[in-house]
Amino acid sequence: MGDRITTEDLRKAGVAAGLVTVGVTTAEPFEEARQEIFERDRSGFRGGLGFTYKDPARSTDIRSSFPWARNLVVAGRAYLPDGGSPGTTTETSGRIARFAVTDPYGPLRQALGEVAALLKSEGHRTEILIDDDRLVDRAAAVRAGVGWQGKSTNVLAPGVGPWMVLGSIVTDADLEPTSPMERGCGTCTACIPACPTAALTPDGRIDASRCLAALSQTAGVFPVEFREVMGDRVYGCDDCLTSCPPGERLMIRSSANRGRVALEDLLTSDDETLLGRFSHFYHPKRRPDTLRRNALIAAGNSADKDLVPLVAAYAGHPIPLLRLHAIWALTRLGGPVAEAVLSHRRRRETDPLVIGDGFLAA
């Protein structure tokens, strides 16, 4: 087995394949990230997140999954300008975060595959990890010098800012590590007041129990105190990213009108249609009910009385979670039809989850 492939060879191959930044770090454990996970768990900042939080010992030590690992090749790929801009709010549509307008991970995987092919050509083992709970990818990116961790907790890179997704290649190749970036956010705190739920702290941490992006992908009852501020969002939140000065240049170029979906489509399509159309979304338990829940919240925030019949149909839905959010939406939309449906549900509802939400009280 030869070691003729260099870090610079991999960087050039990655950039040619569409990656914006490529770095290398060792397979040594990420001790600081592990302690941060434990701290967030103790403080309640974890919220309902699973992913790398499920098994910190594994996610912060790549050799626990790949004992042969020597290095990680870490890369970022920009999803703007392809992600476009959701444009002006409309009463009948929901907003999708820019990273999820199209699948950002498919092109990233393809590009990493081209880099991995170079390593394989020299007989090295490789494994591509993208959005994988076996690796704390942000910690790997920072240590590899792919970017620096911003106060929003996103990894930022020059010329791209936070508008990128991360991926890594685990390899047994002997490579020269790249150095972490000697830069940071400095005195800039633009992302902190931009967060609509005050989920970001001044010391650069995020309370996932308050983060709309995390909550939009978490199953169960959406916290009532954040439903109104959810606005027209149906998947993700971009507010801390759109406020970030290093990403402004790329955002200006992202003018195509993308990122909106009709609420009627979300609320009338069957499971198969939604899972097919939004296959790149995270659907808890592979069911699109969380997406429907978000659409009901957006409908309730829309002030569009034309949506009342559609929402009213969900007030009698067999799934209590959807009934609960439909009832909330009807109290927001108001009007005689909404009130008639609510009156009916007050007499018929028996599920403690729905009753406990408090919006059927006379």
Report on the architecture of this protein.
This protein is α+β, with helices and mostly antiparallel strands. It has two domains: 7-83 and 98-171, 3-Layer(aba) Sandwich (NADH Oxidase); 197-236 and 259-356, no CATH class. Helices cover 38% and strands 11% of the residues. The chain is built from 17 helices and nine strands. It has helices at 7-16, 31-43, 56-59, 105-121, 137-143, 191-194, 212-215, 227-230, 239-242, 248-252, 263-268, 271-277, 289-300, 308-314, 320-333, 336-348, 352-356, and strands spanning 21-26, 71-78, 93-96, 126-130, 148-149, 155-156, 164-171, 233-235, 260-262. The strands form three sheets. It has a four-stranded antiparallel beta sheet, sandwiched between helices. Strand 5 and strand 6 form a beta hairpin. It is elongated.
Helices and strands in order:
Blueprint: H1 7-16, E1 21-26, H2 31-43, H3 56-59, E2 71-78, E3 93-96, H4 105-121, E4 126-130, H5 137-143, E5 148-149, E6 155-156, E7 164-171, H6 191-194, H7 212-215, H8 227-230, E8 233-235, H9 239-242, H10 248-252, E9 260-262, H11 263-268, H12 271-277, H13 289-300, H14 308-314, H15 320-333, H16 336-348, H17 352-356
Parallel strand pairs: 3-8
Antiparallel strand pairs: 1-2, 2-7, 3-9, 4-7, 5-6
Helix pairs in contact: 1-4, 13-15, 14-15, 15-16
